[in-house]
Amino acid sequence: MGIKETFKALSDPVRREILEMLKGGSMSAGDIAARFDMTQATVSYHLSQLKKADLVFESKKKNFVFYQLNASVFEEIMLWAAGFMGGKENEEKAQ
Question: In the sheet where 27-28 sits, what is the strand order?
């Protein structure tokens, strides 16, 4: 995962909405696309950007592609962000 790709993917409101939808479990590309007023190609582009950032992964079942969250990337982001919490107080405890 590249942090640049991750934050670029998260910067788009459509992609954040797709991630919110996937919190409930895996969804087919068609089910995701049905919730937006945009072309299938545009939704596919957003899904490919999320895949590129490793925020989602896909699995194929018959003629359908299903997407689901990649929780390990979200855990890495949280650990990275947690490093900025606490400031000087945490530094003193570490010494």
Answer: 27-28, 64-69, 56-61
CA distance 2 to 4: 5
Instruction: Give the confidence band of 15 by pLDDT, cuts at 50, 70, 90.
Output: very high
Residue 18: CB atoms within 10 Å? 25
* pLDDT for residue 55 is more than 70: yes
What token pair was written down for 45? 């582009």
- Render 17-78 in DSSP notation, one character per residue: HHHHHHTTS-EEHHHHHHTSSS-HHHHHHHHHHHHHTTSEEEEEETTEEEEEE-HHHHHHHH
Q: State pTM to two decimals.
A: 0.81
CA distances from 13 to 16, 19, 40, 62 (A): 5, 10, 17, 30
Q: Residue 28 is which amino acid?
A: S
